[in-house]
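Task 17 of the worksheet. Students: predict the tertiary structure of the chain below and write it out as structure tokens. Keep your answer in the requested format; marks are given for formatting as well as content.
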Amino acid sequence: MANLDKTYKKVPGTTIFDAEQSAKGYHLNQFCMSLMKAENREKYLADEKAYLDSWEGLTEAQKQALLDRDLNAAMREGGNIYFLSKWGATLGQSFQQMAGSMTGMTEEAYRDMMLHGGRSIEGNRIADAEAGRAKVDEGRSAEEIAAAQKDDPMGDAVRAASGDAAEGHAQITGAVFTSHVPAIGAAMDLGKTEEPYWKAVFDGYEFSKAWMEQNRPDVVFLVYNDHATAFDLSLIPTFVLGTGAAYPAADEGYGPRPVPGIEGDPDFAAHIAHSLIQDDFDLTLVNEMEVDHGLTVPLSLMFGDVEKWPVKVIPFHVNVVQYPVPSGARCFKLGQALRKAIESYDRPLKVQIWGTGGMSHQLQGPRAGLINREWDNQFLDRLIENPADLATVPHLEYVEEAGSEGIELVMWFIARGAMSDIDGTGSIEVAHRFYHVPASNTAVGHLILTNHPDGSEAAQETAAATA
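Model answer:
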């Protein structure tokens, strides 16, 4: 797979603040934001080193860049000029002082340049920089050029923009679909899994845990919905991609679940963000949030009681609480774009996509407790056999047939759309299917699909079996 287009990294004298830079500089930029409070500015100016050391997550390189008053170094370490301007203001610097310092000019010389029309575009385009490098490299040996590139702070960015890739790329190995009923988590946490009411539910996941032991991914891209936990009515994003390094379990009113925190994958998430947004999916990127049962219950069902989750997790929240909510068709297309994003990542990761929520249930009004077994099982059939057609089902059908909260099922299309059979470049296999009523107020549905791209041994075996 070709790398994503990041030719902007070749523009001379320019650092674009993209998702990768944001992930790298998260703590640095949050430090800068702390200086918007007068008491923090006083603490910083009283003892810069001590204040910097108090910020967990700042790297030594980031601290040194600030101590050296080196804005170019700070930006290479992930800083953004709008955030760094808070730091400059704390030191009493004007924007022209800061800009001048990055160009090697005094404030007066920089101001004079601006008075005379600013820096000329001539000599400051990509072609000019490449011509300059070629002239410098003329007559050098390959070893000398390699050594010079190693010392070039922009070298990695330029080479990345040129499309040099590491060996191998990420692959989607399967998809997991499951309900995420909060009472399931409570039953596990309170040791009730063997009680008659719950045993049938958990028996349906025994195969899943064994399968996961044999098919464990490196990263799970987990699609879920927040249940008025991380997002209240002050902020209602449609699609949220978690780009942070860690996510603690939320207190949903009963105290946090006794489960491990989530380890994220900021680099991979940043890559996915870049690809999906370039494909016109407007995402909200979140570095800090707590995650509720919508995310932790599926992990518990698939991995059991563990001290640490054995995979990294990229959370992906979909608003299905307040209308308008995205359509199944939109989620299906997002899944297809997600596959492209994942497979263009130049590290050999095994990735699973999990779609969670549902099945039929209604939690409010005189119809509370509604379950529709027939509709649920038809949904599972169609999701396997004809997902593109199923994705066109209108919202009204979900509400009428599967209950007001059955709309959560649109999230399953993100996982289904990411499978290789959708564009005919591979095949899928149903590894497990389970359905049960009830778990508290909800019907429980569960599927595991394995993904077999063309050329894989599994795909060839599947093709031979169906020939």
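Marker's comment: The first helix runs from residue 19 to 24. Residues 161-165 have pLDDT under 50 and may be disordered.
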